Amino acid sequence: MMRALPLVLIATAFLLSACGGPKMDVTQMTAAQPTPQLGIDPDAAPHTEYRIGVGDKLSIRVFQVADLSFDELVVDTSGNLQMPLIGAVRAADRTSSELSADIAQKLSAQYLRNPQVTVTVTEAASQKITVDGAVTKPGVYEMRGATSLLQAIAMAEGPSRVADLTKVAVFRTINGQRTVALFDLQAIRQGRADDPNVLGDDIVVVDTSRLNSALREVVGALPALSIFRPF
């Protein structure tokens, strides 16, 4: 666990881009895909699919070819996957579907006709998430595999007694674009809303009243819950 990061750093990072200054990725302050994913407005930002990273464990299935199917292959430190016949295949920063297509293309070039390849991430290597605001122990936390919003906040030992649980902001960079979505933690706890997954490098801020006034305006202007909007 690392020390808590002042909210003013988060505000500064986002406001720099809004003012036309040098772009600063808020995920630099910190160091998947299952059920259900955080909602993304299709008109505002593209769907976010988990991208494979170094150390991830993958299951590879080539239909009806047992010698090319594996329960567990680990992405090496170079970001590659080592496979028989085709050798090193770039896996880091690829989605499961993209990697499936890459492997199929390499196999079809010399060895198989129309191979059917399925790639599944069985275990994600550790990633980092920042939990800040009205929580017991703000800070940067490591997560392994799929982690829900409730679980992320639990890492920080839960919200404080004075926290407004109806306004929890999740800041995320999607394809280089800074985005934010608002969630109702109280509704999630009561089963009236889905408990979404958070992703590595997300910044979770419990109780948006703790945000800088400019950021409060951005979050307050969100048209709906669970929808990521760029700003």
Structure description:
By secondary structure, the chain is of the alpha+beta class. Helices cover 20% and strands 27% of the residues. It has 5 helices and 13 strands. The chain has helices at 7-18, 96-110, 149-155, 185-189, 213-220, and strands spanning 57-62, 70-74, 80-83, 87-90, 117-123, 127-133, 139-143, 147-148, 168-174, 177-183, 197-198, 203-206, 229-230. The strands form 4 sheets. A 6-stranded mixed sheet has the order 7-6-12-9-10-13, covered by helices on one side. β3 and β4 form a beta hairpin. The longest helix is centred in the middle third of the chain and has 15 residues, at 96-110. The chain is elongated. Mean pLDDT is 79; it is low at 11-47.
Report the strand count: 13
Q: Which bin fits the share of residues in helices?
A: 10-25%
- Return residue spans where pLDDT drops below 50 for at least 5 consecutive residues: 11-47
User: Which shape, going by the Cα principal axes?
Assistant: elongated
* Helix-strand category: alpha+beta
Sequence of strands across the biggest β-sheet: 7-6-12-9-10-13
Major sheet characteristics: 6 strands, mixed
Q: What count of helical segments does DSSP give?
A: 5
Beta-strand content bin = 25-35%
Q: What is the ordering of alpha helices and beta strands?
A: HEEEEHEEEEHEEHEEHE
Overall mean pLDDT score? 79
Radius of gyration: 20 Å
N-to-C CA distance: 30 Å
